[in-house]
């Protein structure tokens, strides 16, 4: 623990300052006397925290050191961090909720938070006093109340091979039409696929409808109206179908096992010249294939016919569970983790954007080829999926993948695929609101 | 035990030490004694098996009845389990299984594909057992090699097979393409129903035949050599000996192996889940995969339970048929 001394001291001042802010904000809480204990007296007890991913991940190690710092500030507090793999995450949480054995605090994928909130298992979060990134805050709000602390986020951008584009004298695509045109040229001149699509990659497909000017679903009164069986929805499906029918993607791209990770592998294997990926994936791509170093460029996602480049604002919240016996302590640790003082380090270690506006902007390095593009995409061209309890079930279901697989296999026309997606959304939205 | 219950009919000592004729017998129907008898005969055995019974009811009976009950409800979502928020819907889930094209296909696939795998496993298992029963050089080595697929965890082995059959980088496609079959260039085995199940079938049979082989090898050793010798003297050929002596003598063992293989192959999950995930578009699901997809990933507990019950009843029906066959066999022999 000797090595932690310096960090502990730094963390100490931070936590004290934070605790003061907390105490100041706590005054207008709902009159619960115990809500804001005196910071000088400090907290005590044991805190169980679930963090997504592994303990060796950048996020995992970062949280580990934050926990050490928090423990050093509050002598009577023990923070136990348990790591939950993303792939098993949703089931793990559902099982815990059913069994009544929830942690005090947990990282929640921002598309899950409304579902958990609707189940009534989350405690309200106090987001006043800090300027959070709007899109992350928005997805934490259910029925007018906030249930998660926006922690970090990121959104997909278009990566392309600068060496190939230079050799061909091409500019990276700015629109869907550009994409097809540029793709044709690359396919004709090089022995490489311009751009690949896969059925099991809904976070690429779903935002296409926004780019075409439509909505996945809109809330009208008490019900949700799905939006794929519209002009914009059809355009999104047609564009996806066109990309598939160009023959630029491997035949296996129709199977369940071919995911966004496979697409990234293809790019790393120099099998494709462009890929839609998260900014932090770049490190892994270059690690897999050092030849790519210096040969990757990044641009905003191409603009669709609706004049939009929007994509999903992916991210994580920290949520406090209602059944926790340490709700104040859990909230205090959550606020400590998302606090501006931690955010810059966290962003540097992980490559994600912090959940607070000032810090998200501060992470941008104007001289870098990647970070300004990633920031512009995330702050100006990223949005949340429908914020509703039923969305978790829709995303967890295989509906989008199944529909795209039928479209790729030629079993569905664009119209049938659109009608099918709308039906899947409608049936789940009805279940959720009944 | 028997002797003490029937006084007088026992051996010598009863006569010697027992009361003589005319003397009052030691009152057989005394109430205390009959209680003791009831306790000894009925209650005591029950008490002895009670702990085991309790465990079985708790660990097998309760889950089965709970699943059966859930299958008649529309339970879905977390609240159904935490707060009992569900309605009784009768046989609606079962009706949906047989009307929904995906689930119906899943049920039919389970039965047909399961039976194909059982036949494949048994044929290959018998063939390899007969081979290993012959004396030849390297028999021990081959015996060990045969056991290997059985010793590798299903999931790990399935991932290896998945790579072998990978469309772009798989060895199988590379071999076929090198041999001049150009259509295997970037051929996707897992997008079509039949090619996908051909691969799954290979993996399942490859994993399950070693057990059949080892069990049959043990069975083959029990066939007396003189029977075989005698039939040879009668001028039978090898095929006749297999058909009329070896297999009939192994019949009880074969029946047990068929039952076990059927149960394994009908509830197979890992191979399908790893190789195809049930896709594309849920076209390659079997009942166990459908149960997981509906029940766990979509939180439709009611439907998941109904699918599990369908599989349960299919297996019970098949097991009953087999048990009957075994009983008949025993009565004949």
UniProtKB/TrEMBL annotation, chain A:
Keyword Transport attached: yes
Alphabetized PROSITE patterns for the sequence: PROKAR_LIPOPROTEIN
Chain ranges passing through the membrane: none
Residue ranges the record marks as coiled coil: none
Pfam family, one: SBP_bac_1
Top-level taxon in the UniProt lineage: Bacteria
Cross-referenced PANTHER family: MALTOSE-BINDING PERIPLASMIC PROTEIN (PTHR30061), MALTOSE_MALTODEXTRIN-BINDING PERIPLASMIC PROTEIN (PTHR30061:SF50)
Family: Belongs to the bacterial solute-binding protein 1 family.
Protein known as: Sugar ABC transporter substrate-binding protein
